[in-house]
Design brief:
Blueprint lengths: L1 H6 L6 H9 L3 E3 L2 E2 L11 E6 L2 E7 L9 H5 L2 E3 L25 H11 L10
Antiparallel strand pairs: 1-2, 1-3, 3-4, 4-5
Amino acid sequence: MDVWIWSVRLTRTRSIASDACRGGHVRVNGVRVKPAHVIRAGDEVRLRHEGSERVVVVSRIITKRVGAPVAAECYVDNSPPPPPREERVPVAVRDRGAGRPTKRERRSIEKLLGRRARPEAEN
């Protein structure tokens, strides 16, 4: 399984494909599979990777990594289209080594993201 996912270029490395299988992010015909699972032509493979889900139907089995045009012929891509860019939620990024945000910084981040500050304790 992991060799096929890597060979058709659904993941960059075989170790990423293997980790995805072990982590339960790969399903074949609706069943979670291990890296050593044997696939056949006609199987539906669902791979959750980098925040999106790829849904492909196996049309040909290969065991060696090949060029991108040849790899694209080995499966039929039924993945849902990615969400439009404006629907993606922005993620606040802090500089590496900056430590935890101060109380003032945390409040400004919450205000920027539109979150309400924690309610005050009632007396």
